[in-house]
Amino acid sequence: MAGEQQSQSEYLKNSKRNFLWGVATSAFQLEGSPYADWSTWDSIFNLNPKVTNHYELYREDIKLIKNLGVNAYRFSIEWSRIQPSEDYWNKDVVKHYQKVIDLLNENNIIPMITLHHFTHPVWFIKKYPWHTKKSIEKFKEYAERLIENIKGVDYWITFNEPYLLILGGYIEGCIPPGYKDLELALKALRNILICHSEIYELLHMNNKNAMVSIAHNMAVFAPWLKWNPFDRLIKKIAKHFYNHSIIEGFLTGKIILPIPFKKTVELDLPIKNKLDFFGINYYTRVHMRFNPLKKLLIELRHRDIDGYGLTDMGWEIYPKGLKKVLRYASKLNVPLIITENGIATKDDNKKIKFIKAHIDVLESAIKEGIDVRGYFYWSLIDNYEWLHGLDARFGLYRVDFRDYKRIPTKAAAFYSYIIKSRKF
After folding, report:
1. What is the pTM of this model?
2. Residue 255: inside a domain
3. pLDDT value of residue 11
4. Strands 372-378 and 20-24
5. Residue 245 within a domain
6. Residue 96 pLDDT more than 90?
7. CATH for 174
8. What is annotated as the active site (predicted)?
């Protein structure tokens, strides 16, 4: 089966006609882990430590994936389960994730693995947080050992949304490790991207067919008040900082970060051309408002302008923005894959409308000549949403968190229809 998987991946590298239709999840958001930093950060895990119980129900969930008709599945491997303490490596957990991969391959579903999706073992974040030089060594040791032991995977995401990890964990302090320090944030970003570079090389040494990227969250930015020069300025700064700087970094090896109303920071990093594709997570448009009382003088707001409404999390639904971020990312001259796009809503019709509107924009972008090779809906099933608990219903399948029952939504059937009817 591994040989078949490699040849399929090789074909996907060289053909624009074979499109990856998928769904995306992360291990911690489905499985939890008592050894992860987030388990100590959010008290909800005291009441629901297994979240959806995906760790035990993965076979059932892969059947759901198969029933959708997708040909790819993006998921993460939970580091804290494999290495719950610094000096212990749980081989049984590695075997568990290998079983997941093998079952996907047996069902002709291409696995795309995320190595780091926000969570860490508690020991790592206490002793070697990302702003310390030792963090590079420790994460690389973990990744190297895992890569040597995992078979049947060509598609890898090294880090999911590294900028969000830095903004939340080092500037706002709202997620682990909970710092509020710009200097530490810059050190952490540097170390994470050095890790990406070194793991990129490791993956290619291990597998000549490897396809490696990060998953970068991109948003569309707009001024809260178009006539306000401060709103327009911070919109421009945010757009470059959040969307464009990492793309420029992969093109040039230099990340230039404009800090609002402060000096511009330049980071020289060994990441030039260290991409085989570029993963884009797209959800919303954000309106930027100057607020001198806020950290970095910025306030983020959402409002419904185009009539698509807001999600249950209050985010604006803005399908046109997908083409805007794809168009800019295309300057990387590597294939683009939409590694996340989804909506938190309990309204099935709204979810269907969201999917259709974004796929329509995707189709238009491809016809325009933008090289997009895949689309992964977030998420397969309802899950834990960072800082929002269990109420943000992203899933194509609803989850009853009392008994872990999966309930198909009308959006699941619609997504299956889309996959069959759209020929990219």
Report:
1. 0.96
2. no
3. 47
4. parallel
5. no
6. yes
7. 3.20.20.80
8. 340
Q: What are phi and psi of 337, to 5 degrees?
A: -130, 130
| Total of domains in the chain | 1
Of 60, 183, 340, 385, catalytic: 340
Question: For this structure, is 299 an active site residue?
Answer: no
Q: How confident is the model at residue 6 (pLDDT cuts 50, 70, 90)?
A: very low
How far apart CA 266 and CA 258 sit, in angstroms, is 9
What gap in Å lies between CA 362 and CA 176, rounded to an integer?
34
Range of the domain at 326: 2-218+278-284+320-412
Q: Does residue 126 belong to any structural domain of this protein?
A: yes
Please compute Rg for the chain using Cα positions.
20
The model's confidence at residue 263, banded by pLDDT at 50, 70 and 90, is confident
pLDDT tens string 17-30: 589 999 999 999 99
In a domain, 84, yes or no: yes
Please give the structure tokens belonging to residue 203: 């993956």
Strands 254-258 and 264-268: antiparallel
Sign of the alpha-carbon dihedral angle for 39, 45, 49, 52: negative
263 Cβ contact list (under 8 Å, min separation 6): none
Cα–Cα distance between 358 and 69 in angstroms, integer? 19
